[in-house]
Amino acid sequence: MKLQELGEFGLIDRIARQVHNSPAVVLGIGDDAAALLPTPGTLTLITSDMLLEGVHFDLSFCDPQSLGRKSLSVNLSDLAAMGARPRQFLLSIALPKTISLEVVDGFLTGIMEQAERFGVTLVGGDTCASLGGLAISITALGEQLPELVVKRSGAAVGDLVCLTGTVGDAAAGLNELRKGVRQGFLVTRQLDPQPRVAAGVALAEAGLVHAMIDVSDGVLGDLTHICELSGVGARLELSGLPLSDEYRDSCTADPYALALTGGEDYELLFCIAREKSLEVEALLKTLGLRFSIIGEITEGSAVQMVMPEGDVYQPEQRGFDHFG
Ligand code: ADP
Ligand code: MG
What we know:
Strand order of the largest sheet: 8-10-7-11-9-12
Number of strands: 12
Order of helices and strands: HHEEEHEHEEEHHHEHEHHEHEE
Strand content: 15-25%
Shape: globular
Number of helices: 11
Helix content: 25-40%
Radius of gyration: 20 Å
Bound molecules: adenosine-5'-diphosphate, magnesium ion
């Protein structure tokens, strides 16, 4: 069955039926606007991310369910990077009218699965026909006490630069997909990243981080964003980059290039005072997450990368830029 047989309101109905009630949602899908009840004393953090067929995903590579999960995950990752607790989201979609309902249902199942896992409620959105491919735009809302929100601008000279998890996997996974590989650890890291919501919230609420960002564009690009907004530089020790065995096995020559500039890992990159590192390590361990120190914040504005032998590393590319 094709979407055009169901129609716009049939689709919105199908979506609305999958949404559970939440005490914070006074009015959900169905009216002209949703009405939400914020937790008293909190700020609302709001973020939006768009996924376009042919730009961000390829339906011949990914199953619709993973695409649904990833669409929400990339937004939750942005909230996590602020230390916000995710609450609600809006889903705007443009679909070709000939798309099969099976794909649409798989996509919705994936979104709802991830929404349930992270306790977020779908409260509205927009639905229209696309003359091109599938376009997905999600806006997610989160909450946090004002003093606990973590910005990009708080890094201080002498801070340690740290990471959760491993980097480079998602970019290596994309290379595998292009070669025809359809499963495995790297492919899963590309198609189905898990946002570090628990870690972001715990780090923020413990008051342990000065600055934080999620690694969507690559460690180098994202650390550069922190440095620019904090008015500092950084020195990265490439020997400290956390690389998975699968990633190492997939590298032919330079093992640092993709890990630094590949992006889409959705790990958290954050800056902490040196004396907090054991505390942070212990906290992330309770969440089952790897913790790595990859460098230090310095004076100046440059991000310098040092190879294990002490030579300065020069990457060919600095990170992802849609217009670059
Ligand atoms: P309007 O024309 O007033 O913008 P719509 O017909 O677009 O209203 O939407 C009707 C209701 O359905 C609204 O509450 C809207 O938020 C919700 N809605 C529309 N599309 C979606 C979607 N893709 N996901 C969730 N809710 C949606
Ligand atoms: Mg509308």
